[in-house]
């Protein structure tokens, strides 16, 4: 496939409500979309980096810079997703930027070939059960209201963000209000240290599905030590940036569940490789989220339909974060989202909505 031009479009998407984690509060998403234009069709990729390097070392301005100066110029004359991945490999890090470009190339090639993301990746289901991530709140009553609303909407799993000082009380309150059958897990975003092991072990009383990334974002060894002190399964997110990291985590016993986020690991090809490795080792995986628009959400829902994704993901409806999405909104039906079936992502940006949230656009001609 020959590329004629690539657009780097930056958009600002206000969130319906602030989303608080152990590392900060998100009130809007500042997103770079990559649009690959070829003679036979075009494709879209969404960069999940945040405005500031708080979730990981990546951030939007750096993603734009590395795309313009290094990743896009490295693409070969004739390109497909695998060739794009190979061409970007020499450059260290910047996996979210790489993922956005690789996904846009993959979307273009699949729209041209007529194959859906789900089919290309090996989806085995037509719809996926959806969980929802609930931020840290100012009070327990406020949290219970929010969780009640999501349970009402039909989400099949609740994930609570936790941090030191907001962990046992919210988990206990949700268990007491919604009962033992509610699928419940927590995500610390690396807010604890091994010295907190005894405090974290108190979460064992609440029959959680998992505790996500309790320790440092680049750690495996201490998570292995912690997992030997907990009954609750440890799930890794930030620590897993590649299939090699996943293999090391499994070998070390650092995680018994892995949250796969295509942006964090450099794209859907790497995400599929991690899925395949985990299936081979009997390690459950689920699809994480980075508050994506409908474009990234479409790709994530397709990924979440692969056989090894046996736990509900953070693949929520568009309205969980956005009053108006840049695509037809993903809407929960009986706690599930349908996997798009059209070519490529199977969904397109709605041009006037996209234009209304665009803060900048830059074209690179080939
Ligand atoms: C702004 S926080 C993004 C990272 C966070 N993501 C979520 O909690 C899910 C967000 C979503 O529903 O997309 C995580 O560490 O798993
Ligand atoms: Mg997480």
Report on the structure:
With about 375 residues, this protein is α/β, with parallel strands linked by helices. The chain folds into two domains: about 130 residues, Enolase-like, domain 1; about 220 residues, Enolase-like C-terminal domain (TIM Barrel). Helix content is about 35%, strand content about 20%. It contains 13 helices and 13 strands. It has a seven-stranded parallel beta sheet. A hairpin with a 2-residue loop joins strand 2 and strand 3. It is globular and about 60 Å long. The two termini are about 15 Å apart. About 50% of the residues are buried. The protein binds N-succinyl methionine (SMG) and magnesium ion. N-succinyl methionine binds next to strand 1.
Largest sheet: 7 strands, parallel
- The CATH class label of the largest domain is Alpha Beta
Low-pLDDT windows of residues: none
The CATH superfamily label of the largest domain reads Enolase-like C-terminal domain
Count of beta strands: 13
The separation of the N and C termini measures 13 Å
Keywords: Lyase, Magnesium, Metal-binding
Protein name: o-succinylbenzoate synthase
Domain Mandelate racemase/muconate lactonizing enzyme C-terminal: 140-233
EC number: 4.2.1.113
């Amino acid at each position: 496939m020959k590329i004629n031009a690539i657009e780097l479009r930056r958009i600002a998407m206000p969130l319906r409500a602030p989303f608080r984690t152990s590392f900060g509060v998100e009130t809007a998403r500042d997103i770079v979309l990559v649009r690959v234009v070829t003679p036979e069709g075009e494709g879209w990729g969404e960069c999940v980096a945040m405005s500031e390097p708080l979730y990981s070392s990546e951030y939007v301005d750096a993603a734009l810079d590395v795309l313009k100066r290094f990743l896009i110029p490295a693409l070969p004359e004739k390109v497909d997703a695998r060739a794009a991945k190979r061409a970007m490999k020499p450059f260290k890090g910047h996996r979210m930027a790489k993922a956005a470009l690789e996904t846009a190339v993959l979307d273009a090639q699949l729209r041209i070939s007529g194959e859906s993301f789900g089919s290309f990746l090996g989806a085995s289901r037509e719809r996926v059960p959806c969980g929802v991530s609930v931020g840290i709140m100012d009070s327990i009553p406020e949290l219970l209201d929010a969780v009640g609303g999501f349970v009402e909407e039909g989400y099949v799993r609740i994930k609570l963000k936790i941090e030191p000082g907001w962990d046992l009380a919210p988990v206990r309150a949700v268990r007491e209000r919604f009962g033992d059958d509610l699928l419940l897990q927590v995500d610390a975003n690396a807010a604890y240290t091994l010295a907190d092991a005894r405090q974290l072990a108190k979460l064992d009383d609440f029959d959680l599905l998992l505790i996500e990334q309790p320790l440092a974002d680049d750690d495996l060894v201490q998570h292995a030590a912690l997992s030997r002190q907990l009954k609750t399964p440890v799930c890794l997110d930030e620590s897993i940036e590649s299939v090699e990291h996943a293999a090391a985590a499994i070998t070390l016993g650092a995680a018994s569940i892995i949250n796969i986020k295509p942006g964090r690991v450099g794209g859907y090809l790497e995400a599929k490789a991690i899925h395949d490795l985990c299936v081979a080792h009997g390690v459950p995986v689920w699809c994480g989220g980075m508050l994506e628009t409908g474009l990234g959400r479409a790709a994530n829902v397709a990924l979440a339909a692969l056989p090894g994704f046996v736990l509900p993901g953070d693949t929520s409806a568009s309205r969980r974060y956005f009053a108006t999405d840049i695509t037809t909104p993903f809407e929960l039906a009986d706690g599930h989202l349908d996997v798009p079936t059209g070519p490529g992502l199977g969904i397109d940006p709605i041009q006037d909505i996209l234009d209304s949230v665009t803060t900048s656009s830059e074209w690179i001609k080939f």
